[in-house]
Amino acid sequence: MYFLRRLLSLIPLLLVISFLAFVLVRLAPGGPFDRERKPASPEIERQLQVKYRLDQPIWKQYLAYLGDLARGDFGPSLKYRNHTVTDIIAQALPVSLALGAMAFAFAMGVGIPIGYYTAVRRGRWQDYAGSLFAITMVCVPGFVIAPVLVMFFAIQWRLLPVALWMSPWHAILPIAALGLFFSGRIARLMREGMLNTMQLEFITAARAKGLSEHTLLLKHAFRLAVLPVVSYSGPLLADLLTGSFVIETIFQIPGIGVFMVNGSLNRDYTMVVGLVILYATLLVVLNLLVDFAYTILDPRVKYE
Amino acid sequence: MSEPMAQSSAVNVVSGDPAPATFTAPLSPNQRAWRRFWRNRPARISAWYLLILIACVAIWPLVSPHQPDRLSEAQFQPPSARHWFGTDVHGRDVFTRVMYGAQISLLVGVVGAGVSLVIGVLWGATAGYVGGRLDSAMMRFVDILYSLPSIIFVIVLITTLEGALKNVLAAFGSDSLVKFARLIFLFIGLGAVSWLTMARIVRGQVLSLRARQFVDASRVLGAGPLWILRRHIIPNVFGVVIVYLTLTVPTIILYESFLSYLGLGIQPPMASWGLLIAEGAEQINPIRIYWWLILFPGGVLVTTLLALNFLGDGLRDAWDVRGN
Amino acid sequence: MRIANRATGIVPLARFSFGEGQLNSRRKRSSIWRRLLAGCFAFHFVFLLAGCFRPEPPADITICNANEPESLDPHIVTGISEMRITKALFDGLVRLDPTNAAPVPALAERWEISPDGRTYTFYLRTNAVWSTGEPITSADVVWSWFRALDPLTAGDYAGQLFYIKGAERWYNRATTNRADVGLRALDDYTVQVELNAPLAFFLELCSFPTLAVVPRHVIEKYGDRWLHADPLPTSGAFTLGAWRVNDKIRLLRNPRYWDAANTPSQIIDVLPTSSPNTALNLYETGVADIVWDKDLVPSELMDVLSQRPDFHSFTYLGTYFYRFNVTQPPFDDARVRKAFALATDKPRIISKLTKGAERPATHFVPDGVANYTAATAPGFDPEAARQLLAEAGYPNGKGFPRVNYTFFGSAGGGAKLHGKVGIELQQMWRDVLGVQVELRQIERKVFYSSQSKLDYDISMSSWIGDYNDANTFLDLFTSTSGNNRTGWANERYDALIKAANEETDLQKRAEIFREAETLLVAEEVPVVPVYFYAGFNYYDDTKVGGVWQNILDEHPMQYIYRKSPKTNVKSREPATGARLVQKQPAH
What we know:
The structure holds three protein chains of three kinds. Chain A is an all-alpha fold. Chain A has helices spanning 2-8, 10-27, 42-51, 58-70, 85-120, 125-139, 142-156, 168-198, 201-208, 213-225, 227-241, 245-250, 257-265, 269-297. The longest helix of chain A has 36 residues, at 85-120. Chain A is flat, with a radius of gyration of 24 Å. Chain B is globular.
């Protein structure tokens, strides 16, 4: 019931977000048609404004946009003029979804074991080694990891392709670059969650009952320990699934992250609003899933 | 409600919260915590490292033989006795630029972490503890801010308000203040986005905590929400908060470089670690690598963050209310 | 690729995690970990297999072209990288010779120019057809040009047609009668154009994408989405095989092209690469055969790259310069502007920053423009600069107001150079004039908007010529030009440009232009040219043929071919590998 209500609240929320984005992007100075060279006559610029309804008052533009949206049309891109925003999302989203989901799985697959293990071995060398790795990953941004991976795997050893999106082999380096960066964060959160849980009273009690350390940690502690990671994974997954500007640029991947940034920079109004709606939907749904996961992992959690 | 102190000891007994037996120790809890902290070797080394770094950053401008924005013919010199970290495209000393960049980056990191700490923790703890409608409303607000494109947000912020602020600062007659007008907006912009995930994480923890027995017990015994928040919730999320803070700092420092590149952050010839690393990363190519441009700024950032993390761990361990 | 890849890609990670799990030698836990990891990797592979990879035949030639095209509609495109593609798809009446960029017949077999230079009569080929088989007739040409002139098409370059009599009035809806526009079909294969005034470069203009011939029947049917029509009728050497945004554009040979006999390549892939390092990596590993945008050459490597045999540089019609805002002090005083110009050490910027074949610019119109010898302005002269500044009332820079040098920042590509140039200029002005200039880096769109609104003191600028004539550079600074952006309005200059464009004698015309340019760069100095761009591309001559260098950076794809047959891009061991200088960062 609670979750159903949350899902319904998505609609007014999207209205608010899209309106804010719609206004905000138009407040930014410089328009979609400002560029290095001006057309020969001011009339040309005016016609462009008319063509894309930019000459109308903002509330009229927004209502017209909502009208289009109701028919499933995100409108034409103001930058890529032969494509609609829907075209671009349809082409780029599957790529970003695939890449993002794989990077997410990678980050979880590397981060959770490291976080778990560093917590269990707290204060010993394994803890320091794992933490060193995790923190290094946290500090080294994608625009450093990616070229370094390319230098070694693609250029020095010639094992993997340098860039492009053509086969599963092409996906490995981008996944690793994106996944490593976030695995560090996940490892840190996981370690903290584990440390916290290991001190809880019921764990101590279970330990006293003579349960094996292992069953104890994995069966009982893990569920609670993973909560910070779960909280973080909502926004993280929303970010990953909508692409990464840096990774997509370096590996020349036709995902959606480049459009997120360039849309803003190009003042591609329809593109920005369309992608914000897409992103917000993903974010809200994922956060809902996160909240739902909470009730499963920690049955005492109630939302009323 | 009326006698919170008395109730709290009762709570500790009921919940079995393993509170240290403070009344038998000759030292105050704080002193004991400091002592525990100081016995932690990684934390101690980290603290020294950070202190030395801060001292260098403060002193270097006074003793440096190089000016940060002085150009020279010595372009792309590898590290030497004269230029410890080599020189960049304009022939500037990279060590000096790293030291000057530290000012910006540490400030950016501190501001981001501060906003994240104050707003993020309070917001998340309140939403999680009160729950219900308020929780929904507060978290939807976070979702809205999180969804809006931050680049556009910063552009609008800077371009609409910068002129106005510059005039105000100029009216006070200080030229050097005008320079910092942009920095202030950079901080506001970075601060505005830095606390959102923190709020989500804290809220998640609080949701789980408030359902635990000792909180229930405390409530049954009549403790008010503020008391419970302060006595039970905040201390229990402290660890996660510290960890997430140390994750926020590098993110903010690197995000600053992205904004700066777009012309939304600091102005050249100023430097920041993020910018230095971004400039260095461009040098990674198959033909020739000016490795000192990426290795040194990157190394300084990584070691600083490592130190911060171990320091955070040490602090957390030392002040952990739930014992060791 | 090979099995080895799988090992390096995934297994070590798995082993690492298992290893950690087994340290405690507890079976149960490691089995849980194994399940967890297996789940993760299964997840990977499901996505990988179900992913959006489609096998495609390899291309004959793969080219790194800059940035994703904004459009492939020739009447809308504005960028060079887009125009390269539209020219492969849609022919005009005239095209440019790839060796020297001179106008040669394309859809028009020949033409006649009336003695007064105002009327052009084009005779179309009778064997030219659309890639779908229909003949291309004069009606198509006239319809296409009227479309380019239609405000609803909203092309930025519609102004290129304003030289035609009555065209500007038609655009502004001052007339709706087509007969008022000097453009008519005399019969099915003859087109006559009447100009406002004689125009020395009209034939070059006819090769411009804005004047290309586009398929009426498809455009009328699909509107703005006409480029997605399948099949898309094209008039050029190629058809559009695939257009995936930010992925690739695949061009397929058009067997019905009138000059198909001279199109050796079957498939050309055009990659929208925006990072210079990625372009270099793709080229060095043999994935890309040609990299041909000046923004895709990392300037730090220019000194190494320019020594290589596969690196080609050539003079190019582009000028890097800076503008003064002449509407407010201190730059309303020509002496101050001149002082700044004289204090600019142009060769230093080239030797320190661009490091390529750029040349210091002592005038605005690049060397090599047809029928023109440029004026000259004095070069770097610190003494004279200081003296001029003192005359203007700022001896040794004393009392000089705080001014800014405005430029835009960018997260990638060639735009990073702007900041570096700014830093060097700041230092020169400080050293020579004793003036402190504040660098103001702003976001790109904000920059263009501030420049138009004259919200700057000095601003970084560049200009690439549209056609090979001095006019494409000099008419920028007429008082009515939307691209003036300096606030500088000079009646004499306006009159000179107008007179030059009405002059049919090329010699006299050049002299008038020179007089105007002298006014611009030596006397009034609203702009200071810094250097002339050089064009760069890299490709291996022994492998790729049909690429020539010319002043307009014009490389028709029609002629490009692979000398040795390319079997499979991926398995081919790149021959360029030997040239790699192996140098790794220390760890």
